Amino acid sequence: MPGKHEHDHEHGCTACSVELHEKLPWSRIAAGGVLLLAGLYAEFFLDAYYPAQALFLLVVAVSGREIITSGIRSALKLRLNINTLITIAAAGAFATGHGEEGAVVVYLFFIAELLEEYASQRARRSISELLSLAPEKARVIRDGREQEVHVHEVKVGEVVAVRPGEKIPLDGVVVSGSSHVNQAPITGESTPVPKHPGMQVFAGTINQEGYLEVRVTKPSEESTISKIARLVEEAQSRKTKIEAFVDRFARRYTPAVIISAALLAVLPPLLLGEPFEKWLYRSLVLLVVACPCALAISTPVSMVSAITSAAKHGVLIKGGNFIEALRDTKVVVFDKTGTLTEGRIGVKKVVGVGASEEEVLRIAGALEQRSEHPIAKAIVEAAGEELPEVEEFTSRPGRGVEGVLEGRRYYAGSRAFFEELGMPVPEAAEELEDEGMSVVLVGDGERVLGVVGLQDTPRENARSTVEALRRMGLRVAMLTGDNRRSAEAVARALGISEVYAELLPQDKLRLVEELQRDGVVVMVGDGVNDAPALARADVGIAMGAAGSDMAIESSDIALMHDDISRVVYLLELSRRTMSVVKQNVVASITIKGSLALLAFPGFVTLWLAVGVGDMGLSLAVILNALRIGR
Questions:
Q1: 3 state DSSP class of 43
Q2: Strand 498-500 to strand 475-479: parallel, antiparallel, or no bridges (unpaired)?
Q3: 28 by DSSP, 3-state: which?
Q4: Contact 283, 98 (CB under 8 A)
Q5: What residues act catalytically?
Q6: Which residues constitute the domain of residue 358?
Q7: Per residue in 285-321, pLDDT tens?
Q8: Which of 19, 116, 376, 483 has a CB 3.0–4.6 Å from the CB of 371, allowing a cystine?
Q9: How far, in Å, CA of 331 to CA of 511, rounded?
Q10: DSSP characters for 80-96?
């Protein structure tokens, strides 16, 4: 907000506790209030005019130091702001013999600004709460003994001990012990997650009942919890289109108000012969009423409330602009594997055509062992550990792999890949696809030797999420590189009628661009394989981003846990937030406009203008915005 008091918040180390300055300066509030009451008593009950004026000036000195300094500085730079308006109004009130109203204007505006700052910091408090979850000390195992050191002193690769009930000090991987860990601060999960050797754990999460030894994988300043806090803080500073408009409006509006007030003070006395003092007072009322204070804070306070509320629910939103875009969503596009499905693909069936089932699986496993694709990993796992080495290995993205095995060239991949190679696809592949399986064909260049059928399981809440989105009036589509039969089988199970299958990454990108012709497109994927489509969509949402730096940094919104229902939560949050923003903007304009009109005939006093039109309205806007978080 232009002209607001600024305070530097020293966050210091991101791994240590953070304290935001959200305590109100009660001593100044009390001193100003006592002086104001004393001045009013002296003027109206003791008839001591000059002592009363002196007390009113003291009220301004105690409560208005920053307001008047900022107002004068802005006026000298010809960049008029809200503080300039208040300074002019207070000075005019004293000049016309209304010192009590000048003091009231400054005192109430002082309280209004403090309330706004307090509310904004309350909304941001989740950052400090988040960072304070990570302990400052860690028990490092060195030379066979536990040493308690500051988390800064722990190096990547060292092992820390975590006892039952303690917080995990740093991101790492469990190397010994088993337990359940409460990950709610990171992922928003309501139930503790079982942890065993080889599994990832995060700083700030709580070890429940078992003893764990954790090998540190990130220094304290790069932990997931620190990264989330930094990104949430950055998100709060990004302006939405509405905020940018209000800022531009305020820059032009304030000088216009001052010119209008000046004309109101001068023209009636000159043209109508009215008393100058009467119209000067009314012009001062107009100045105070017209302060765009509540309008300026109506959007940012709402956005901060929404972003911090989402962070507490395991949803990381990169900026208020994405909340604004979500409200206008027309199409929600899901990747299939790992998003709509569990992503734990397993080999369900192997059919030998020109070789035995064992030989088909052995060849497929050998070819796929250099690939990182989930399907490849599932085949390698099913084939076992005793796999021969492959020479002249070549990967063909989106199609398959080939290589020389024991002196003979073999191929493994999709139906399209084998059709390109000129090898007829056997009926067995179609039968497995009809059963909803993804198929990998295995051949030697002359014929298909066999078919491997793999299947993934739809997520438990995927169907209810799709149904909820459709009830919201949204179009739901699925994009996948999988074969059409398998894709359609999953889509039928989830109630999705719009399916695009057998897509390469560039095909997904093209389809997102085509869908954008119908309106705002939200793409939900894993944040890595779907990176081009996620980047091109109006809003890209990455699933299960906890611990994945690439997913957190490349997406617009990151769901820290694999909970697809959070997409519905996000859309509802967006609609609720933008509804509150609209309510706040409309209320600010309506109430201030009404008071401004009443200022012309003299129905509004200075203290009423600031008490209702500024402080009262600002407080109402803040309370309405904080309602989003609840």
A1: helix
A2: parallel
A3: helix
A4: no
A5: 335
A6: 346-455
A7: 887 777 776 777 777 778 888 888 888 788 888 888 8
A8: 376
A9: 12
A10: --HHHHHHHHHHHHHHT
